[in-house]
Specification:
Blueprint lengths: L4 H60 L4 E6 L3 E6 L6 E2 L10 E6 L2 E6 L5 E3 L2 E3 L1 E4 L10 E3 L2 E8 L2 E8 L4 H4 L13 E18 L5 E14 L2 E9 L6 E5 L13 E7 L5 E5 L42
Parallel strand pairs: 2-3
Antiparallel strand pairs: 1-11, 2-4, 4-5, 5-8, 6-7, 9-10, 10-11, 12-13, 12-17, 13-14, 14-15, 15-16, 16-17
Length: 318
């Protein structure tokens, strides 16, 4: 059958319109795909930045807090002398420390201090000679200071200690970075909070061998490679976040032997939380022998290798 020239041009016009429409659709799809790719790339870059900022805050926090620790001394009933001289019951380090600072006196769990007449010790910028000391259990321990040293009383279950800090502790400058596993978003997991019927007291021990009791309000459940796991957690005040300590197949090898801490945060969706193992961090006792840390209870020992978060730092092995 013969076609007229007019029919041919009509066919060609229709074909070009269809071809152009398909081209526009393709362009739109490509644009949508590009926008989605860009969005995911931006989200990933933002996540990388947030983790790096968190890691920097970790170093700053350790330098200001745990790396200033210079001593931990268990008080005995009665008199406990302290100062730089080795004849004291508690020997305070630092070349500028007076040989004999004074005496701690503990009577039925109440601690007071008597300062020698030739030594200047301050509390709230005022020189003191003697006073009763509040422990950290009061929420506001009595902090005493002499030179770069400061100290206060802490109570752990049924034991009472003097915790000593030194703002010139050499360990502060020794920490320049924290070793971490390579960042992997696969370890940022959705979690479900599962409250206990009644608060549960977790019985464990600390790295110093003392008993430790933690009140757990619930557990968080999550999946790794289609396997379901759960960890008992405890609330961080009224923040809506939870904290826990766990061990896994890397503990004692690539990571600290006494486990690692992690914070569980709300994801913004109803009933859902995020447990991000890229933020699994070492307890303070990984950096100083003068901290006491709980050891993960049996139910918080994961039967897998968590190759995310902080590794052990051999520069601070003790």
């Amino acid at each position: 059958m013969a076609y007229s020239m007019d029919s041919f041009f009509k066919f060609l016009k229709a074909f070009l319109i269809i071809l152009g429409f398909q081209f526009l659709l393709g362009c739109a799809d490509n644009q949508d795909n590009k926008e989605e790719t860009d969005r995911k790339a931006n989200e990933f870059n933002d996540y990388i930045s947030s983790i790096k900022s968190w890691q920097e805050r970790r170093i700053t926090g350790l330098k200001k807090n745990w790396l200033t620790l210079a001593g931990l001394f268990e008080l005995r009933e009665g008199k406990n002398t302290f100062g730089a001289h080795p004849s004291n019951d508690f020997v305070f380090p630092n070349p500028n420390t007076p040989d004999f600072i004074g005496t701690f006196v503990m009577e039925n769990g109440v601690v007071s201090v008597q300062i020698n007449a030739d030594v200047k010790v301050k509390h709230n910028d005022e020189i003191i000679t003697e006073m009763t000391l509040m422990t950290d259990q009061s929420g506001s321990p009595t902090v005493l200071q002499a030179g770069s040293l400061s100290w206060y009383i802490i109570k752990r279950v049924d034991k009472i200690y003097v915790r000593l800090r030194d703002s010139e502790n050499p360990d502060i400058e020794k920490l320049t970075k924290i070793n971490n596993f390579p960042l992997d978003t696969a370890w940022r997991l959705k979690a479900q909070y599962e409250p206990h019927m009644t608060p549960k007291v977790i019985e464990t021990i600390t790295t110093s061998g003392d008993p430790s009791r933690i009140t757990s309000s619930g557990a968080v459940g999550f999946r790794i490679n289609d396997q379901y796991h759960r960890l008992d957690v405890w609330a961080l005040g009224d923040s809506g976040r939870f904290q826990t300590i766990f061990a896994d197949g890397t503990s004692g090898l690539e990571t600290y032997g006494a486990g690692r801490f992690i914070v569980v945060e709300k994801s913004g969706e109803d009933g859902e939380y995020i447990i991000d193992f890229n933020k699994a961090y070492n307890p303070p006792c990984a950096y100083t022998e003068f901290a006491t840390c709980p050891i993960p209870p049996p139910q918080n020992r994961l039967p897998i290798r968590v190759i995310a978060g902080e590794k052990v730092d051999k520069d601070f092995a003790h």
